[in-house]
Amino acid sequence: MVKKKTAFFCQECGYDSPKWLGKCPGCGAWNSMTEEVMKSEPARGGLALGLSTGQLPIPIAEVAVDDMPRFETGSEELDRVLGGGVIPGSMVLIVGDPGVGKSSLTLKICAHIAKNRGKVLYVTGEESTRQVRLRADRLNAINENLFVLSETNLDIIEQQAAKLAPELLVIDSIQTVFRPELQSAPGSVSQVRESAVQLLRLAKNNSIATFVVGHVTKDGALAGPRVLEHIVDTVLYFEGDRNAQFRVLRAVKNRFGSTNEIGLFEMRGEGLVDVPDASKLFLSERPMDVPGSVVIPTVEGTRPLLVEIQALVSDSPFMPPRRTSDYIDIKRIQLLLAVLEKRVGLMLGTSDVYVKIAGGIKVEEPAADLALIMALVSSFRNRNTTANTVTFGEVGLAGEVRAVSHAESRIREAAKMGFKRIILPKANLNNLPKISAIQLTGVETVIEALEAGLD
User: Fold this and answer.
1) Domain-located, residue 250
2) Is residue 53 part of a domain?
3) How far apart are CA 293 and CA 312, in angstroms?
């Protein structure tokens, strides 16, 4: 009897080892190595991508380039993140926490494409067809061209997809499907990797746009091997608490568009709904005349958004004091606190500091530095910021305020929302068009900004 050859694979990153290890050398995770049977049969030719072989090398200038035909998904926010729509033959991975709205969004997309383009196949490995029908009734996603298949065997899924020839194929989720010739369980590193490769071959050979839903770990990262993100064409991450009102869809990889765009959605009874006027919603519950509240025009891709930064600084009975933040990097806050102590003379070493971005959107750009400092000082001194004012600018370690990009689009968004004054880097005032009914105050240092922005 031939003994089966096994190896140990990390369930977090896919690192393989001939023996069990307590700590993965690849990602550092503990107790993540599991034993799996190695595939013994020879690999079939062309399995990796399913592309034809035998072609001769040709000069890149002679390669024919045609415009890639995109089609709409029915969601303007999703189309923006994808780069203008879905490309036939592309493979999109959608990742998010349980209950964030992945299945609801994909089912609404299926209904729109089934109504406007042709057949759509929705494959579910986690629900029965009856459960999918109940959700489709709630989302008003019933169409005769929308076909549902409850199956986890990838060979059967491939047969049905080739027979139906759909415009769109949805797999919900990649962690539930399996290839029968592999001995490992569904969701393991080997199964996820090989299943993704087979789905990619199916999508490319038949020009079927494919959406794949993926699970996340407790840390919010994609569950399964890291190679899965390299296989697909586009990776979309849902951000935001499942109990929050808003969801943010962000592209972390996109072979056919920008990775800087985001899509904003609101969770309602009929599922995820586009949020076209996000600034108005983010500021709808903003308290007035409260210290520690500052509005910043942030830019995500080409889209300006007005969001509220809230800060609370209070004396701490504990040492060291606490530093916490929601949706903003805590290291950035610690750096700005050091600038305030050294350059402004504010002693914050014995104070607790809490910072939050209202609305649940993550702000990562350095243009939020000046607004953060304004909110921290406003709360520490218990002084309100000037009314109808927004603030943006990058702060250096010397206390200087540096110029940022997209200044004009930030100003126009603030003017559209009714703000009358903007505090911005003085270097950004050059070559800016004059915008009526709004006052621009240029500053060069943090001290100048605080004098201009606090009552």
Assistant:
1) yes
2) no
3) 9
Distance in Å from the first CA to the final CA of the chain: 84
Q: How much is the average pLDDT of 362-390?
A: 93
Edge to edge, the sheet with strand 6-10 lists: 16-17, 6-10, 33-37
CA distance 85 to 81: 8
Does residue 216 share a domain with residue 123?
Answer: yes
Q: Are 6 and 35 in contact (CB under 8 A)?
A: yes
Residue range of the domain that includes 24:
6-37
Nearest-angstrom CA–CA distance, 195 and 199: 6
Q: Model pTM greater than 0.85?
A: no
Dump strand ranges (E) for 270-374: 271-274, 293-300, 303-315, 323-326, 351-357
Is 374 in the same domain as 319? yes
**What's the CA gap between 11 and 228, in Å, rounded?**
12
Neighbours of 155 (CB within 10 A): 14
**Which amino acid is it at 257?**
G
pLDDT tens-digit profile of 5-34?
788 888 777 778 888 888 888 778 888 888
Whole-number Å distance between alpha carbons of 100 and 116: 27
Distance CA 117, CA 113 (A): 5
Q: How many residues does the chain have?
A: 455
- Mind listing the pLDDT tens digit for each residue in 206-225? 999 999 999 887 666 676 67
Tokens coding 400: 């200087």
Report the CATH number at residue 448.
Answer: 3.30.230.10
Phi and psi (nearest 5°) for 218? Answer: -65, -20
